[in-house]
């Protein structure tokens, strides 16, 4: 094989592999600076000039407008507490505590970050509208079929993420300081 | 043997090329992203106008990861026409926030209603050059108390968010967000 042919083959494979790996990195990763706490992932530097190249590129592509450090913090769970991907056929119990914040919300989104349509027209729970027990703790059931109490419906049989947003939280700038036990746990109860 | 050597050199060359392409691609995406948040917001209306974002919903697919509990409005600015005066009411006990974004997606300043004075947000967004011109004109004895925020880029947008404590209060939150005002100040000479 002559060197030119070899170089051309190598360049073609390299170009394809390089583009594919970039594309999948932007689709899958949550940035080099992401902080993982239990099932939750936070990217504190998102939207700041200090964000790493992966975080920046993925935000540019998605069109997301991240929360500023002074506004709050967004955490995303793609898995349950056992580290298994969230499954629309399963029932999850989310609770019982959330980190200190003036308000927080728990929402359910598809893989691109949009709410999923459901008959109950509910895609988010606010800290200010939750039913709580006498200890001030809460429990939100995430499932496809209707439940009494705090129920966050899974509208369609597709992969979904849970999004926890803390507004006016002392943890905004220091997500790494959040204790795992201070975040809501995501426990799988049963699956169909 | 010869074939093995050929394949090995091709694999090595491909791996090096792939690595290089990967790094370059990741770094240039932000420079060429034509569909980032700023571009999407630009399509919604003119600069300096306050525009309400639709509530995050399954069929509102412009900006991902929006919070359905939080109403949002924004205005785009261009400081080449002079500094921008931003005002908005900030009623006590109701969460609202202002954040200042560059056209490239970075956030350079943010504050919540807790930092607002006398129930309102007020700030002047300026370029570095405009700030120097303003401070040069001021008397040193009476420094201005106004909040001046230096934008790293001449174009960008201001985002106002207002939290709704219950689904029925979303409309009221949207009214609060929509009270954001962005007015260009005449460039002083």
Task: Tell me about this structure.
The complex is a heterodimer of chains A (192) and B (189). By secondary structure, chain A is an alpha+beta fold. Chain A has one domain (31-191): Domain of unknown function DUF1214, C-terminal domain (Jelly Rolls), CATH 2.60.120. Chain A has two helices and ten strands; from the N terminus they run H-E-E-H-E-E-E-E-E-E-E-E. Chain A has a six-stranded antiparallel β-sheet, with no helix packed on it. In chain A, a hairpin with a 2-residue loop joins strand 1 (35-37) and strand 2. The mean pLDDT of chain A is 86. Chain B is of the alpha+beta class. In chain B, the strands form two sheets. Chain B has a five-stranded antiparallel β-sheet. A four-stranded mixed β-sheet of chain B has the order 7-6-3-9. In chain B, strand 6, helix 3 and strand 7 form a beta-alpha-beta unit. The radius of gyration of chain B is 23 Å and the shape is extended. The mean pLDDT of chain B is 89. At the A-B interface, helix 1, helix 2, strand 5 and strand 9 of A face helix 1, strand 4, strand 5 and strand 8 of B.
